[in-house]
């Protein structure tokens, strides 16, 4: 025990969590940084600071300022979600509630609407909007989107692109994007796929079939016998032109 005691004492202390007062102080500093950025109309930097402050302390003031910064960047959908939280919360200062109500009206007028449709049997394919997968529940109905350029894609199970549509939507405007699911045509049931031709047999060449040559041999032989009977006598008949030569079957 005496040997192990110094080693145990030498171990570093575990990191303690921030106290509530320390978190509040950090959140206040981030909030003030965000306010300074808003005065310079640096809305991206302001939104970043307000989002960081919100992680430490969730207050209506921080959410409202974050929503205002997002609105000025054209990120209407995200801003509207924060405004809804503020307007539905209790114990919100009157000044913040009035400002949030005004921002809500501006967002309602600025939000764009996009209707995504898919024609054909898409099977296990899925739809993405600006590289974000969209649930089936939003297909065929108007969906709130930020104004601007949007890319809608239909992706197969392996991630291959089956179809795409690119649309531009104005502030408060509406647009449609239609995708077509093209699937391979299946062979009819019971159909036999074509087979490759095999090697030609001896009797399938370009020449005459063997049975035609055999019939010709019999015909010529019969003609020779008839001529011999007609000549008669003891003399040997001339057979040269009557005897068939050797016929090679190809």
Features:
single chain, 250 residues, alpha+beta, Serine Threonine Protein Phosphatase 5, Tetratricopeptide repeat, Immunoglobulin-like, four-stranded antiparallel sheet, three-stranded mixed sheet, 7 strands, 17% strand, disordered N terminus, disordered C terminus
CATH homologous superfamily placement of the largest domain: Tetratricopeptide repeat domain
Going across the biggest sheet, name each strand in turn: 3-2-5-6
CATH architecture of the largest domain: Alpha Horseshoe
Number of E-type strands: 7
Head-to-tail CA distance between termini: 105 Å
Largest sheet: 4 strands, antiparallel
Outline, from the CA principal axes? elongated
The low-pLDDT segments are 1-10, 199-205, 223-250
- Give the fraction of residues assigned to helices: 40-55%
Question: Helical segment tally?
Answer: 7
Which structural category do the helix and sheet elements fall into? alpha+beta
At the fold tier of CATH, the topology name of the largest domain is: Serine Threonine Protein Phosphatase 5, Tetratricopeptide repeat
Order of helices and strands: HHHHHHEEEEEEEH
CATH class of the largest domain: Mainly Alpha
Proportion of strand residues: 15-25%
Which whole number gives the mean pLDDT?
A: 79
Radius of gyration: 45 Å
Number of domains: 3
């Amino acid at each position: 025990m005496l040997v192990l005691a110094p080693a145990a004492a030498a171990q570093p202390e575990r990191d303690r969590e921030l106290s509530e007062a320390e978190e509040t102080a950090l959140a206040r500093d981030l909030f003030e940084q965000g306010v300074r950025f808003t005065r310079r109309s640096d809305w991206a930097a302001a939104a970043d600071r307000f989002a960081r402050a919100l992680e430490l302390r969730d207050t209506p003031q921080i959410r409202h300022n974050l929503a205002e910064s997002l609105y000025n960047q054209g990120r209407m959908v995200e801003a509207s979600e924060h405004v809804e939280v503020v307007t539905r919360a209790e114990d919100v200062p009157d000044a913040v509630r009035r400002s949030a109500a005004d921002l809500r009206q501006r967002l309602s007028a600025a939000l764009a609407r996009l209707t995504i449709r898919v024609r054909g049997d898409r099977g296990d394919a899925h739809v993405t909007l600006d590289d974000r997968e969209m649930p089936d529940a939003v297909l065929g109905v108007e969906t709130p989107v930020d104004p601007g350029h949007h890319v809608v894609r239909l992706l197969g199970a392996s991630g291959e692109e089956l179809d795409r549509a690119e649309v531009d939507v104005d502030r408060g405007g509406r647009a449609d994007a239609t995708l077509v699911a093209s699937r391979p045509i299946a062979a009819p049931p019971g159909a036999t796929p074509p087979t490759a031709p095999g090697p030609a047999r001896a009797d399938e060449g370009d020449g005459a079939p063997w049975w035609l040559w055999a019939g010709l041999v019999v015909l010529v032989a019969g003609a020779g016998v008839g001529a011999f009977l007609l000549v008669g006598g003891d003399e040997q008949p001339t057979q040269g032109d009557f005897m068939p030569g050797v016929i090679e079957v190809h």
